[in-house]
Amino acid sequence: MTTFDDRERAFEAKYARDEDMAFRVTARRNRLVGQWAAAKMNLTPEETDAYAKAVVQADFEEAGDEDVIRKLLGDLLAAGVEVDDATVRRALQEQSAEARRQLMESE
């Protein structure tokens, strides 16, 4: 019975690590896409840092990426940046890959 218990604990540990990694990738991606948007809006370095943190916080409003997309799109359009939904979604995908790469390199 201990072999089964060991396997169960191993699967639970792997699941916990995978969930933690997914959370960290999403948070890093949101920070990176916030920096991308801030550059498009010509924000100062201090404003860029604050904006990137605000984008990370926006992800906690609802499940999925729609809350982040809504924030980015609204802020970019309000700043006079010509951007559409597809461009923001593409930036999210690109920054997700970059976030995963950065986290893999740091481990």
From TrEMBL:
Pfam families per UniProt: ATPaseInh_sub_z
Alphabetical list of InterPro entries matching this protein: ATPase_inh_sub_z, ATPase_inh_sub_z_sf
Protein name: DUF1476 domain-containing protein
Organism: Sphingomonas agrestis
